[in-house]
Design brief:
With about 270 residues, the protein is of the alpha/beta class. The chain has a single domain, classed as Alpha-Beta Barrel (TIM Barrel). It is about 40% helix and about 15% strand.
Length: about 270
């Protein structure tokens, strides 16, 4: 796939993604994709209903049972709420059900950790998805992200408030925060406190360069990462998922560590 050729040409052998394993049915192993931007016309993801359906079709063909759709909620850029997101989501569900009636879609969000997120926690106005944790307990999961350019401010307090409100935090694309690449104990600390750590398929496929690949690999290898997500905005991200079906690293993680995307509950 041409989009990772520059990555291949500039890295050592150990930093290149390996796609040498016999392919598996990746979607059947991961069950749910738990981070994507498939609700049409609400953020920087799918623009039209047909775009959304084309991306869902790829998930179906990969063997997934369902997807949690997580449009951006960022007060400065994407000031979304359930009120703004629900009509487009309902339209998508109606169209998808006609084609793939067994495929489950859930509406949640990817919250930017800022004052607005703290306000949503305080008001109990969060979009969440239901799951079971590693002990089998029912939990309400909320996906959130940090900024890419500087460490988050006050994240410990916000995460504490989220948990005290009865929610389990899910950190989006941990490998994409370069300020913690040399401080991976930060991710392990969050995981020890009950935050579910996720990595993106595109990073594991090499699309974002060797450093993000290396960090995503390490988070899988030591079991810190609990989910691999598409973070799909377009077809290129589905290509990453397809590539990972032949990744020895991913297959080893699936065999030896908890895969919490299998724990999504279809109700709610």
């Amino acid at each position: 796939m041409a989009w990772w050729n520059p990555f291949r040409s500039k890295t050592s052998e150990s930093d290149r993604p390996d796609f040498s394993a016999p392919p598996i049915h990746l979607g059947k192993q991961l069950v749910y994709d738990v981070h994507s931007h498939l609700v049409p016309g609400v953020d920087d993801g799918a623009e039209t209903l047909e775009d959304s359906l084309a991306l869902i079709e790829r998930l179906v063909k990969l063997g997934y049972s369902g997807a949690v759709l997580t449009p951006h909620i960022h007060s400065d850029i994407y000031p979304n709420s359930e009120r703004t997101l629900r009509p487009a989501f309902d339209q998508l569900v109606s169209a998808a059900m006609e084609r793939w009636p067994a495929f489950h879609l859930k509406l949640a969000a990817e919250y930017f950790l800022d004052d607005h997120f703290a306000d949503c926690i305080a008001a109990d106005e969060l979009l969440w998805f239901p799951a079971n944790d590693e002990q089998g307990r029912e939990v309400k999961c909320v996906l959130f992200e940090f900024g890419f350019h500087e460490p988050p401010m006050n994240h410990d307090q916000v995460i504490f408030d989220l948990q005290m409100a009865g929610y389990t935090g899910v950190l989006a694309h941990a490998e994409r925060y370069p300020y913690w690449h040399r401080q991976q104990e930060q991710f392990r600390s969050l995981s020890d406190r009950g935050v579910w750590i996720t990595v993106n398929a595109a990073s594991l496929a090499g699309a974002y360069g060797p450093q993000m690949y290396r960090v995503a690999h390490q988070l899988l290898e030591d079991g810190t990462a609990k989910m691999i997500c598409s973070d799909a905005h377009g077809i290129r991200h589905m290509d990453s998922l397809a590539a990972l079906a032949k990744s020895p690293i991913v297959q080893n993680w699936i065999t030896n560590h908890p895969v919490l995307s299998r724990k999504i509950r279809p109700e709610h």
